[in-house]
Amino acid sequence: MAENQNELLQKLAHVSINDLYAELAQTVSGGSPVGREARERAGRALMLGHFSRLRDGICGKYRLSQGDGATETVARDAAAILDTVVAVTGLALVPAATLSVLVVKYGLARLCLETVS
Q1: Three-state secondary structure call for residue 21
Q2: Are 104 and 81 in contact (CB under 8 A)?
Q3: CA angle, corner 115, sides to 113 and 117, nearest 5?
Q4: CB 3.0-4.6 Å disulfide test: which of 5, 24, 57, 61 passes with 88?
């Protein structure tokens, strides 16, 4: 993995889930939806829109940590799924990296067990 990707994942691993949703919405939209809550909602909607493809692309294919939450663990696990996230979503590196960290923080067990209605 390129050094800049590693640095990006390390930086994102420190960010709260709500801030990751806001970051995801901002990087995908190329702008800044008005207000933090609007960005968080937009980021959640974006993740939900990719939920089935993420689940299909990731579940059963990766053995990630049990979610100890350590920054290094989050970054390593996000790096493991980054190429798949790019492939199944078509997102560029920065939003895909953000989404990868969100998936890890959300929890692989939750992702693979839940269904979208």
Answers
A1: helix
A2: yes
A3: 165
A4: 57
